[in-house]
Amino acid sequence: MTPDNQIPERAAQVVIGIPTFRRPEPLARLLDTLSAELAESETWRDRGVRVVVADNDSDPATRDLVRAHLSDVPSTVVD
Predict the structure, then answer these.
(1) 44-65, pLDDT tens digit by residue?
(2) From CA 2, how far away is CA 9, in angstroms rounded?
(3) Which of 8, 29, 54, 79 is the most exposed place for a label (fewest CB within 10 A)?
(4) 20 in Cβ contact with 63 (< 8 Å)
């Protein structure tokens, strides 16, 4: 067991949460911007950044959208 102030080596240290509901265009713009920001700073890989998109609609297009825009970033879609 690790102390509360330590994060296991493989765990995400920074989680970016994005809630969405039937907003594919604004989500695509946000993901493009986020991807560009992360690409400018390679340190995100060392910091364990993970993106979680909470989609309150079960449309599979959201998963495809996230995959297309964040192909190099660990990401999860929760519906």
Answers:
(1) 777 788 899 999 887 889 999 9
(2) 10
(3) 8
(4) no
